[in-house]
Amino acid sequence: MVKPAAAGLERLLSAPPEALQVFLVYGPDTGLVRERATRLAAALIPDPDDPFAVSRLSDEDLKSDPAALADAMAALSLGGGDRLVRVRLGGDSALVAGWIAEFEAGTTPAEARLVIEAGNLTKGSKLRKAAEDGKRSAAIACYADTPRDLLEMAEASLKSEGLSLAPAARSELARLLEGDRQLARSEIEKLILYKGPGGGEVTLEDLAEITSSGAEAALDQVIDPAFGGDVREADRNYHRALESGLNPVAIARALQRKIDQIEAYNAAGNDPAALARSGAPRFGPPAQRFQAMARLWPPAKLARARQIAFEVERQLKSSGAPGVALMGETLLRLARASSTSR
Length: 342
What we know:
With 342 residues, the protein is α/β, with parallel strands linked by helices. The protein has 17 helices and 7 strands.
């Protein structure tokens, strides 16, 4: 039975012992599960993307063919090298647990090594128990990182690219980097891409800037004043957007995406972690503006806004519809509605 402690986990992920052939990576933090399973795959086989050396199976594969795992594990390598089987599950699996038990008992052949990704498993789950009880299996739990863990990860990643965090930016990042590791790493990579290798110090302004650039930002400059209740700014920015080449249909679709974001943010708890889960800006003034805007749109009112957005897109796609006027009136209508909620 192998349940690696924190001290030995890095060593196991970087150089898995030859004695271990089965690795179960599970837990509620799906981003961390994916990251650790990927690291294991890279350590177990020279090219984890080689389709001749790596077999991939899912829940659906196992449901449609219960023998698929046994067949994949028993198959010999065509080139004579190492083989790896990767299984991705949504939760517990009696079938995979049964295979592990047979493997540990020596009653089923295994010519490959096996990495299993699973969701959150209770202590009594069949799959977790099989991996924890086996002598040639490892069970690796992945629970949510603390903000401190994620900040340390961020600083290490930035340092490797010749970057550092200004004190104010460090405090803001520590507050915002929480929850799913995959989302946190995505934000860190955005910072690195924005600053560039050797770009020096990451400031609070940089954190805000990475969420407010490009075409999406241009659309936000039209949509956000409308949802924030600023009638005059909504009208002015709409005409500027038209002059810059944006069309009413693109604005209508951006309107629907904004409604989705606000709805997801409200449903996820209206906190910094909810910003990440909704895809909203996570840093600095853009995040603060989004949070203030979301407070103006309770569920019933947001549902009405969605109806309006769908209707205007339908009209815009109708032949001969006065698109510019229709979209402009819709934005002003939403701006007036949100201004009454202030």
